[in-house]
Amino acid sequence: LLIVGLSNSGKSTIVARLTKEPVEDVAPTVGFAVETTKMEGLSVTMFDMSGNQKYFTLWQHYYKDTTAIMFVLDAADSHRFAEADAVLQELLRAEQLKRVPLLFMCNKMDLVTAAQPADVAAALHLPASSARAFQLQSCSAMQGSGIKEGMQWLLEQV
Ligand SMILES: Nc1nc2c(ncn2[C@@H]2O[C@H](COP(=O)(O)OP(=O)(O)OP(=O)(O)O)[C@@H](O)[C@H]2O)c(=O)[nH]1
Ligand SMILES: [Mg+2]
């Protein structure tokens, strides 16, 4: 599972939820982190990539081993929607990811300033392609809501 998105979107906090680690201890990822967890009888290896721009070139090295993509967005940070859109569209152009299912996590929905999923879908040109299984999931990694639902959908696709 390739986990990507802009810096500060909440990728590692979602991983902490999935691995039952304290979400308070999460710090910005340097490079990337690998975690494995068991879900629904499957062993899921998660590549939690840094969203820091200086590490973007790292992402492509993991495309060939990617079975599913989780793209995480900070729904409360609308100033960065265009930047997130550009990063997402470039990611989805990769030949190796053409038919890989995409779970789009609309994160930080606990914040009152969070955009509604429909507005996010419009701003980020979702779904990106009809050839790919796609799901938009609202969640709050902080509160732990929406993550199980998103992962359940993703595991049904693989
Ligand atoms: N309010 C709120 N804050 C969140 C949520 N998820 C993550 N955060 C906070 O957002 C900040 C960034 O979270 P990270 O999980 O480190 O984000 P990341 O996407 O892994 O960031 P990089 O590793 O730098 O790419 C932290 O302060 C988290 O506590 C959420 O659902 N709601
Ligand atoms: Mg991180």
From TrEMBL:
CDD domains: Arf_Arl (cd00878). InterPro entries: ARL2/3 (IPR044612), P-loop_NTPase (IPR027417), Small_GTP-bd (IPR005225), Small_GTPase_ARF/SAR (IPR006689). Gene3D superfamilies: P-loop containing nucleotide triphosphate hydrolases. Pfam families: Arf. Mg(2+) binds at residues 12, 29. GTP binds at residues 5-12, 51, 107-110. One of its GO terms (molecular function) is GTPase activity. Keywords: GTP-binding, Magnesium, Metal-binding, Nucleotide-binding, Signal. Belongs to the small GTPase superfamily. Arf family. PANTHER family: ADP-RIBOSYLATION FACTOR-LIKE PROTEIN 2-RELATED. This is Uncharacterized protein.
